[in-house]
Amino acid sequence: MEIAFVLVKCEVAHEMDVMRDVLKIDGVKEAHGTYGMYDIFVKVQGQTHKIVSDIVTKQIRKIPHVVSTSTLSTIPEQGGK
């Protein structure tokens, strides 16, 4: 199982619109609004790196009002609860 965390920057005043669309995507496990440089913190999970990559590039980035994303891929052997 592959996990990535995606930092999403939105157009001003469209954060909740983007959040609703993000949460509809299969593979998105969590999404949280944040303060600072990015507006939404998203946890994405998929069976393979390609699936996770496709969720980010073909779905999240195509949501209206998404300005940019920054993806943090995890190292499966490091971390956990």
Shape: globular
SSE pattern, N- to C-terminal: EHEEHE
The overall pLDDT average reads 96
Give the strand line-up of the largest sheet: 2-3-1-4
Please identify the oligomeric state.
single chain
- Approximate helicity band: 25-40%
Determine the structural class based on helices, strands and strand pairing.
alpha+beta
Tell me about the biggest sheet? 4 strands, antiparallel
Whole-angstrom Rg: 12 Å
Low-confidence stretches: none
Strand portion: 35-45%
Distinct helical segment count: 2
* Count of distinct strands: 4
Distance between the termini: 15 Å
Describe the structure.
This protein is an alpha+beta fold. It is built from two helices and four strands. A hairpin with a 6-residue loop joins strand 2 and strand 3 (40-46). The chain is globular, with a radius of gyration of 12 Å. The two termini are 15 Å apart. The model has no long low-confidence stretch (mean pLDDT 96).
Features:
81 residues; alpha+beta; 2 helices; globular
Itemize the secondary structure elements and their pairings:
Elements: E1 2-10, H1 15-23, E2 28-33, E3 40-46, H2 49-60, E4 66-73
Antiparallel strand pairs: 1-3, 1-4, 2-3
